[in-house]
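Hi U.,

Before I forget, here's the chain from the pilot set. I'm dumping it here mostly so it's searchable later in email.
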Amino acid sequence: MSTYQATHLETNEEVTRPAVLLNPHHKPAGHGGQDIDPSVEAFHTSLPQYGSTALHTLPSIAQDLGFAHVFLKDESTRFGLPSFKILGASWAIHRALCQRLQLPPSTTLEDVKQALSADKAAHVRLVTCTEGNWGRAVARMAKYYAIPATIYVP
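Structure:
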């Protein structure tokens, strides 16, 4: 593996660094060795405006870095929002609503929406704080489920 010389900004000490830093905490199995629940992908693909994330090739950057390929993951149009936050927010909200309604997580968005409208005693409101895209994702999910949301913004 190739290396490069770096100078510490305060001490001027010269150190040799590897050209590529490897994460010592990386687990090759991915998610802690746990299998991903297939209902997660099924849920996300059922959301309005679902689409795969675009990957853009960056050949000049790859060449500059000495890599065969460099890709840029473009999340600017994920579910109509300029952020990946909708993935986590949507699944967290869906799981919480399913738990509240005593439904399995594999329940579809439409079936949860119907259960919410049928169970007037549920009194469900989504509440979160945000500085940006998380709040937009929560608000979008509230719209999908036709439930109120309160988003606090500093």
